[in-house]
Amino acid sequence: MTADSRNSALPPDRLKKLQEVPRLHEEAQTIEYMTQAYCSHFHGSKPGELCEECQAFLDYAKKRLACCPYGADKPVCAKCKVHCYKPAYRE
Predict the structure, then answer these.
(1) Residue 2 pLDDT greater than 60, yes or no
(2) Three-state DSSP class for residue 1
């Protein structure tokens, strides 16, 4: 699966924000790396691929990240006062 097909669910203006704001870009890369590692370990996916469930989570996480009200001043999620994720995803 290519990066373009994975990100097609993201509105272009939000995706652009993840590419242009260095702090958000770094965070998006970290989320993608961790999701791929999790999926590979727990769901047996091949490197660079995600199962449907993990792909849905990654798309959701990137959408939430792109909507972060802090932008370039974003704190780490664990120290943030705003809860962007649904309770099930926060776990």
Answers:
(1) no
(2) coil
